[in-house]
Amino acid sequence: MEQPRRITDSFPRRRRRRGPGRPPGRLKNKKNKDEDKDKVQVKLRDCPRAPSQPSPDPALLEMLRRFDLSWEYGPCTGITRLQRWERAQELGLKPPGPIRDALLEHRDNPDVTY
Amino acid sequence: MFSEPAAPTAQGLLAPPSAKPPTFPRVPVSGYLDCSQPFQLGERSFSRQYAHIYAVRLAGMRPGLERCAWSRWGNDIMLRKLSELQAGEKCCVVGTLFKDMQLQPSILQEISEEHNLVPQPPLPKYIQPSDELTLEDELQRIKLEGAIDVQRLVTGTILAVYGSEQDDGRFLVEDHCFADLPPPLPWNGPSSDRFVLLASGLGLGSVSGEALLSTQLLVDVVTGQLGAEGEQSCAAHITRVILAGNLLSQNTQSRDTINKAKYLTKKTQAASVEAVKMLDEILLQLCTSVPVDVMPGEFDPTNYTLPQQPLHRCMLPLASAYNTLRLVTNPYQANLDGVRFLGTSGQNISDIFKYSSMDDYLEILEWTLLAGHISPTAPDTLGCYPFYKSDPFILTECPHVYFCGNAPHFQSKLLQGKEGQRVLLVTVPDFSATQTACLINLRDLTCQPITFSGFGADNED
After folding, report:
1. Is B301 within 8 Å of B327 (Cβ atoms)?
2. What residues of chain A lie within 8 A of the CB of B389, using their CB?
3. What pLDDT, in 10s, does the model give residues B347-373?
4. pTM of the predicted protein model
5. Taking CA atoms, which of B51, B70, B113, B395 is between 20 and 30 Å from B29?
6. Which CATH number describes the domain made up of B32-43+183-254+268-451?
7. So what's the ipTM on this one?
8. Which of A68, A69, A77, A94 is the best substitution to test chain B (most B C-beta atoms within 10 A)?
9. Looking at the partner chain, which of B49, B59, B389 has a beta carbon nearest the beta carbon of A78?
10. Distance from chain centroid for Cα A93
11. Nearest-CA residue of chain A relative to B47?
12. Are B99 and B157 in contact (CB under 8 A)?
């Protein structure tokens, strides 16, 4: 199961400051800051959208949204975009090919399902 | 027909038995192919809406309907979508029919508190003179009036109407057409007499046991234990038995135990348990001798929505040890000896009966074949699985035998189509009420009823 998406995912997660009193075990200031930076990066990698893959650009998302709203291919609720594309293909409605390529390229991205 | 070869050559039952009793081998099974894969559900996700099935139905049947429209009204007529209609212009529109019925049971009206309605008792027919027809395509809908029989048609049918739009926004229909018979299948039938026995509505587990003797007689005839040698040699020509639904009776469906207190119902078991045990024993006798296809029906322990999935083999431990038992879906499609069978347990026909003025089950059966769809009222008034990819109830090929179970009486008709289609339409009667089953001869597509009755209480002999 994918992690549920939160609205705060678009902001980098920052580790909360421990508070005024320093916990035991942290000796020096410099070492503290390095640890903080490492932890921040680890948190980002845990996010569903890994930074190694390019995030989908807004033009692609706009194209996908237009595909959803075009009435020729039938209703869009309750099925994934890929299922809708394949259904339109089987019915002979000739959906545009680049949409399928984009959907397969960003398969891991939860923005792709609808 | 069935027992004609028996009479002249048979040794009568009044003669002493022959020294060495003859054995009659059953005709071997050749060429069985189960074609009901579209009706078998893999994943079952009910989180979808039913708009998908209507969209796919329209998109799937539109090309065929356009061809029919061109061939009927000429190649030069204009096919328009509802959004492109112009007032007064004669054109043809393809769409889904929706019948607005006042008496149609609506769950929202029942639970609405402001109406304070008592739930409507089930009526035999829900039609009224004030019903209206509306045609819907992908985007818009329009009211229909004119040369179209409002009472006869049902919601969910895909049809093409020819006419023009009036000034008041309604569409005046001059003519309409359906998808017509699907393209024919090649005929590979057997050259010798082969019979298939169709029975439905065994109704086990009912309060009265009158039909049990008839059921046992049926089993005895098929397994060749009844009659003289002539009848037994005829019974050897039965290659298959298809039980088309309602193996259990409606009495097994009572859910009184749910409302009673737990201490009163502790030792009782559901009526269907005993009935299924009886069914298992009957099927065991049949399966040792002949291949049997068991289709579930309205009162059988399987899912309610169409397509009904096969009964689970754990319920029939004795009979499922034999590989001659096949538990199949409802609707069921198969190639038996080169003859394509397609049929349902009757829920689709009885649902159309409730919402249409057509009274004759055979007429409704023929109408569904001409409309190109097994069950147009699903999912509106008949439960249906929310398909999204394709509608498996659309008829793409013309079967050779098209049957429906649980009809009030036996009727059959051979329909000839324009493109050389030959379809035998059979309404299989309810066995628990009529004690009649059907025998279909695969060689020449003829059908005859066979009735089993013991001496009833009103018979004096």
Report:
1. no
2. 83, 86-87, 90
3. 999 999 999 988 899 999 999 999 999
4. 0.81
5. B395
6. 3.60.21.50
7. 0.75
8. A77
9. B49
10. 30
11. A78
12. no
